[in-house]
Specification:
This protein is mostly helical. It folds into three domains: 176 residues, Orthogonal Bundle (Tetracycline Repressor, domain 2), CATH 1.10.357; 102 residues; 123 residues, no CATH class. It contains 20 helices and no strands. α15 runs antiparallel to α20.
């Protein structure tokens, strides 16, 4: 009976025949290499189109509205300013340490400026964000300017800032006070370069960024440091260059192997110029100081032009033969060397050597030296060329920077004038038409070698790059001797002024000399025409052409 009872069907597990063992097919082998599919039935990623990546060029509007980006930028700039003003750590050389601190190193101003430039360039596409960023710059830059001024004031008020006022061969390096002040000025100048590149605080800026006061403050820092240091060098060089107006002392022998005797001023400049060149390179580490450098160089060149052009002529030497003059003229092609080929030769017979006339002295007395190694005369052209070479060793404003282009052009024009002066003086030394004698001297090849028109044309070529009032006194001494043998013609005497008044009124600089060219030239021409002697015909023609050129330029 019990065996007759069976488990109900709903309690019995359902059974089915056992599945056969699947056979391996090539398709199954290939399927194992495929990527496994997702077990989720809702996985449809393979049928979805990929969403485009969000563009990064436009700043999200929410960032500008909630101000989080501006707050982060403000903190970032404040931290950068603090790091830039921190003095370097570590031991300092004895000549650099001031109260245990080292000066600010070069390059920190450019690093801070690069950070500001990157943030501004990244937000130029969003004008609202750009205006907000400009307002954000006020606080950190104002703090920076205040800290720089606070660091600079005690340095400038210290007596050690201008002691010494200029470097010397014995002390070529700046002292610690000067180094710290130069570091601050360099920092401000480097940051000003960024202001110039971005046009921040410019007078012509229509954005109204309000950074003009900060820009002026940075420029004032550079000016207060660099100008006193450059003026110290200027005050040392000006008297030395002015002394070139005085003829060298006679009786000084030339060094062994030297052809000419250097002027004492040239000798002094050869000693100090390398020191000043290194100092000026340190002062002008940023372009903000290069305008002051240009003013210094132009002042030095102008002082040299005035001094060399007004040096009195040396005592007249015995006349040289026309044949020797023609030989010296071969090197000057611009002066029409063919005109002197027709000059008759009046060379005297060759004189025996000086050794033939040496007296037979007793053995107790050595013979006197012959005339060969006697004192060599100094020439004005040699001094002019030497001064040009020495001033060329000083640094100049950058030629590649558009901000210093005008300053560099002005400096180049000044040096062209100095080179033109040296070329004119060299040409007058070998030119046979130069009259070095006094009234009544028979040594004058002017009448038989060239006409006044030809000579005036030669002078126009030689003085094309030289101010007229600089070339005029040189030509007066060379071609128009004074009536009194004991004096020389001078422009001041022709104008009826003292030499000091004439130089203060008309020779204050390149610009002032050009302004006075017409008035001075007209007065000198009237004086020469009143003489009607004919000796100044070439100079009169040359001066008329110079005055006409200046008037034509002024008319344009």
């Amino acid at each position: 009976m019990m065996y007759a009872l069976k488990t109900p069907s709903f309690l019995r597990p359902s059974s089915r025949p056992t599945s056969p063992i699947p056979t391996v097919t090539p398709d199954a082998v290939m399927a194992t290499d495929r990527a496994p599919r997702s077990l989720s039935k809702l996985s449809l990623s393979t049928f979805k189109r990929p969403a485009p990546a969000p563009t990064q060029g436009v700043m999200p509007l929410a960032v500008t509205q909630d101000g989080s980006y501006i707050e982060v930028l403000s903190l970032k700039l404040s931290e950068a300013v603090s790091k830039a003003l921190a003095h370097p750590t570590g031991p300092a050389p004895p000549n650099e340490a001031l109260n245990g601190r080292r000066p600010l190193p070069a390059g920190r101003g450019r690093a801070l400026g690069a950070l500001v430039a990157n943030e501004i360039k990244a937000s130029r596409e969003n004008p609202h964000l750009l205006r907000a960023m400009m307002r954000t710059l006020h606080r950190p830059l104002s703090v920076l300017l205040t800290n720089l001024s606070g660091m600079l004031v005690p340095l400038l008020s210290s007596s050690a800032f201008l002691v010494p006022a200029a470097p010397t061969p014995q002390a070529p390096q700046p002292n610690a006070t000067q180094l710290h002040a130069i570091g601050i000025a360099t920092f401000a100048g480097e940051l000003l370069e960024t202001f110039d590149d971005l046009g921040l605080g410019a007078e012509t800026d229509t954005r109204g960024d309000g950074l003009k006061s900060i820009r002026e403050g940075l420029a004032s820092i550079v000016k207060r440091v660099i100008e006193p240091l450059m003026n110290g060098i200027k005050h040392e060089l000006m008297p030395v260059i002015q002394a070139l107006e005085n003829p060298p002392v006679a009786g000084v022998k030339a060094p062994a192997g030297a052809k000419y005797v250097n002027h004492p001023s040239i000798t002094s400049l050869q000693t100090v110029m390398p020191v000043y060149a290194r100092a000026l390179a340190r002062y002008t580490a940023s372009t903000a100081a290069e305008n002051a450098l240009a003013s210094l160089l132009i002042s030095l060149v102008w002082r040299g032009l005035v001094a060399l052009s007004h040096r009195p002529a040396p005592p007249p030497s015995p006349p040289a033969s026309p044949a020797l003059s023609a030989i010296g003229l071969k090197g000057t092609k611009e002066l029409r060397v063919s005109r002197s080929a027709t000059a008759p030769s009046v060379t005297p017979p060759a004189t025996p050597g000086p050794s033939r006339f040496t007296l037979k002295l007793p053995p107790s007395r050595p013979p006197s030296p012959t005339g060969a190694p006697l004192v060599q005369r100094n020439t004005l052209a040699v001094d002019a060329r030497a001064l040009c070479d020495l001033l060329n060793t000083l640094p100049r404003p950058s030629v590649d920077n558009p901000r210093t282009k005008l300053a560099r052009e002005a400096v180049d024009e000044a040096f062209e004038a100095l080179r033109a002066l040296a070329t004119l003086l060299e040409a007058l030394q070998v030119h046979p038409l130069v009259v070095r004698g006094r009234p009544g001297s028979t040594h004058s090849l002017l009448a038989m070698s060239a006409s006044p028109a030809d000579l005036a044309a030669d002078l126009d070529v030689l003085t094309s790059d030289l101010p007229t009032l600089i070339a005029l006194p040189i030509l007066l001494r060379a071609f128009v001797p004074a009536p009194d043998a004991a004096s020389e013609r001078s422009v001041a005497a022709i104008l009826g002024l003292t030499e000091n008044d004439y130089r203060k009124g008309c020779l204050g600089g390149f610009g002032r000399a050009e302004e006075c060219t017409v008035a001075v030239g007209a007065r000198v021409l009237d004086a020469f025409r009143a003489e009607s002697s004919g000796r100044a015909d070439a100079v009169v023609r040359w001066l008329e052409h110079q005055v006409a050129e200046v008037e034509a330029d002024a008319g344009h």
